[in-house]
Structures
1.
Amino acid sequence: MEAIWNERYNTGIQVVDAQHQELFQIVERLRRMVQGQADRTAIEEQLQTLVVCSERHFATEEGYMERVGYPDLTQHLAEHASMLSSLHELLAKFRESDQAMALMVPTFMEGWLKHHISDGDFGFVTYLKSRHMT
Ligand SMILES: [Fe+2]
Ligand SMILES: [Fe+2]
């Protein structure tokens, strides 16, 4: 397991936990690549992977939330959408040759993930438990 992952981020929803772990792993790989001054194409590919896996993860959660009628879906959607637009912006800036952008992505994404999982995603888990859905 990657260093930044911690058991406290386990939601108990298998598919969600697997995707969260994958995202942490991508972030950690990206951090090592940036610190090791990997070549530009490799870093761009990893940034792209982060975007794709984030999109897939958000779609998984949102689909689940819709199916069970989660009342805070709108707020949760907004948080996901805001993160995706930030990621797209960072990727675009990196492609416009602002290489320094890549330096801030791992810290930014790690912080966001930890906060969003602890707050937003666990809010959903609390809802599922209250409805005896988990
Ligand atoms: Fe999540
Ligand atoms: Fe989420």
2.
Amino acid sequence: MELRLPGKRALVTGSSRGIGRAIALRLADAGVDVAINFFRHRGPAEEVAHEIEARGVRALLLKGNVADEAHVNRMFEEIRARWGGLEILVSNAASGVLKPVNHLTLHHFHWTMDINAAALLPLVQRFIGLPCEGQRSVVAVSSLGALRAIPNYAAVGASKAALESLVRHLAAELGPSGVRVNAVSAGTVDTDALKHFPNREQLLAEACRRTPAGRLVTPQDVANTVLFLCTDLAIMIQGQTLIVDGGYSILA
Ligand SMILES: NC(=O)c1ccc[n+]([C@@H]2O[C@H](COP(=O)([O-])OP(=O)(O)OC[C@H]3O[C@@H](n4cnc5c(N)ncnc54)[C@H](OP(=O)(O)O)[C@@H]3O)[C@@H](O)[C@H]2O)c1
């Protein structure tokens, strides 16, 4: 389906791989200039930047840790200097410690919260400090672990619950100034992130078997929903978390 947002400018955090990469490419297909953020691995980020430019829109490569406010400030200064403004922010970068609760330390917990939840605050603050043309849209990428208990997922699940709550509070406070803030919560997607799960194969098989849609969620499924939320078709969707899981979470 053809959804176009020509002339818009977006930052997608953690867009060198996996779901973030798919979101960046989907936005570029819709005519959006996309700033690619990565932290550790420059090579894949450069490849995404080339793929974006091949679609006839601009790409900007931004190295930075979203959990470090100084890095976030620097990324937005670069966007201001190069592009002048921004209309779309996709907060997708995430990490986290996967351990049973008995082995989780407070350090693990804070580290996970800082990247997955707290980072959204300075990202949005800097985002709304930039000029824009028309309305602004923020989309945060969450997971079913915000609502459900998943083995080894306590820290990440709690961080995603905090993220979804922050989305609602930001939406309520920023809505009157023309900023829409929503989240997309994905079911299991086969990306590099799953390699860190000790039970990856079992997770994938179980997700596939239990999903009413009959297949796993792909990065493109998530990206399509993010694009939709950035368009005027979603103009009255505010502060929501849209679940993209092929129906997995509706089953008892
Ligand atoms: N995969 C799933 O099953 C699934 C399900 C539901 C929701 N999600 C959510 O979807 C999002 C993307 O997940 P994914 O599976 O695509 O992850 P992924 O394949 O592990 O990719 C993570 C991306 O985030 C970047 N990143 C990591 N830490 C960062 C930091 N501190 N600052 C900036 N960038 C950072 C990585 O860049 P570098 O390589 O340079 O570090 C990479 O581009 C996350 O929010 C995740 O929680 C995933």
3.
Amino acid sequence: MIKVRDLKKSFYNQTVLDGLDLDIEEGKITVIIGKSGAGKSVLLKNIIGLLKPDSGSIMFYDKDITKVSYEELKKIRLNFGVLFQDAALFDSYNVFNNVAFPLIERKIVKSRKQAEKIVKETLKLVELEGIENKMPSELSGGMKKRVGLARAIVTKPKIIFFDEPTTGLDPITSMSIACLIKDMQTKLKTTCFIISHDLALTFKIADNIGFLHNGKIIEFGDKNTIINSQNPIVREFLESYFAGEKND
Ligand SMILES: Nc1ncnc2c1ncn2[C@@H]1O[C@H](COP(=O)(O)OP(=O)(O)O)[C@@H](O)[C@H]1O
Ligand SMILES: [Mg+2]
């Protein structure tokens, strides 16, 4: 669905992405892992067109996201759902208005009644029925993530981008969010692109895993490919994870 080729992005004299290649397969869950500061968020922002790369191409089907006009980019973005790290709910809007926002902004619904029906169905998918009138301040961290997820899927995007979907959540809530993403992906057949440093989530739900280091994807494949990687950087990352698991 998306092919990234030779992507380069620097800030001042700091090179963050240095000739990165990546394929995002349609209907699959692709997770990008790597150390904090490796450039995972920068990669995601380039793909959704929030940052402009210095060079390289990002093909969404037959269109290069880095070369299209702003009008065309806006059209392409209608296929995208995004869930940012902090869920980014509007604090002064209740859950209904938060989830309905993209439906109204993109003029997908014709009436309040239609919006209510879609929001209700979407909240059911994230296992949060009947909380339309609650305010974000009344919700737990896990519930906020679910509302954010509901808002990301409400327009039925072709692909959903997640930046650290489980950061700040306890391990049990993290696992329930991971399972929810997997269930939703199975039900809706949505392509998912996730960046994460959470290996438990990654190994639980990823079809494809890419390891980002020094501006490139240095290892790519399924769980077994990553676990059996002989790359010393990948091994070091895995060993610190498995050591942490033993200490729990
Ligand atoms: N808008 C920006 N301006 C300058 N530097 C940035 C910007 N965004 C990210 N960076 C730098 O790029 C590097 C990668 O950041 P990021 O993609 O957020 O890492 P990760 O998500 O892997 O933790 C960091 O060193 C960060 O300081
Ligand atoms: Mg990040």
4.
Amino acid sequence: MALRDKASDSSADSVDGRGRTIRLENLTKTFNNGQVVAAEDIDLEVRSDEFAVLLGPSGCGKTTTLRCISGLDIPDGGRILIGDETVTEAKPKDRNLAFVFQRISLYPHMSVRENMRFGLDMKTDLTKDEKNTRVEESAEMLGISELLDRKPADLSGGQQQRVSIGRAMVMEPAAFLLDEPFSALDANLRDQMQTEIKRLHRNLETAMVFVTHDQEEAMSLGDKIVIMNDGRIQQVGSPYEIYDEPTNRFVAEFIGSPSTNMIDCVVERQDGEVTLSNETFSLSLPEEMADDLDSNDGETVTLGVRPENINPVPDGLFEAEITLIEPQGSLDTVFLTSDDLDIRALLEKGLVESENTTTGVDFSPEDAWLFGRDGERLL
Ligand SMILES: Nc1ncnc2c1ncn2[C@@H]1O[C@H](COP(=O)(O)OP(=O)(O)OP(=O)(O)O)[C@@H](O)[C@H]1O
Ligand SMILES: [Mg+2]
């Protein structure tokens, strides 16, 4: 494997794997003469041993970012590096990256084997035996060896998508770019493909950048989750970090199901004590939280509390009516209403019994986050 001189820092390319590190520096891409800012100031590094997932709502710039990495779009500003090489304006074919889309596009008149070998025929001068070996090894890893002589029309959606991945794998790319590759598959098959692609990543040691708007898919796949909104990165972290320590209100609400409860309160300061109040309750902050909070008396802040941290108790912070119970298997989502406040609790199955009764509701301030009016995290 011919790797160039590598930077001596810790982010240098993995020597064992054949993948390369991808780096985006201040990447910006606009459309319509700058009127649509699809990606703005994106800074990101994905090492060859990392599985990165770009996650965010529709239109947040995931595909645009991926297309810039692939070379299908050229950014307006910033830099893209693959390994030590700057490829910002290089043609897609000169980047040696594999792109797998949601829409599967296999050649219908070719067998699986021919589809998988096609790129090798076009772009390499490997011998016939070398090509066959690559195709067969990749097919083996993807569990499609017995399908090599079939035509795409005779395959299921999941099998076709495996062939698409195999077609990319044989090229031994520097990294894989996958844009919602499993979103057209049914739920069971999608689960199975997720497990397989993650295993494949561990075996290949090649960077993967995977786009999805599905948080569950992102959490189960990603080592590094990149949350985007409005063309900007909101947070980069492990699945645990983004779940436990969201940096802003957007991330807190976007991650987790049911979504985090957001409860507006007014800060009341008296004799060094801080209370967060609204029409429904008054919550005293523990001393260390009160000390850390910079907000002024009378300022509006938002408490973020995960439904899993809301507890039904006899004497709680406030009384609420149970308006709806949605069974989730081992858990129930319970909808609670008190005055103007509507919140959701995720409770053990059967913990509260019937709709249209009341319960005490409690949560601990230590289990809550506090956000300012600009959505940034205060505590
Ligand atoms: N070729 C284009 N011309 C004009 N605007 C574009 C173009 N491609 C994307 N956009 C706009 O850029 C923004 C980001 O689009 P992008 O396709 O990257 O979003 P996405 O996060 O992939 O969304 P989705 O989850 O719906 O696929 C959107 O506002 C979109 O309308
Ligand atoms: Mg997209």
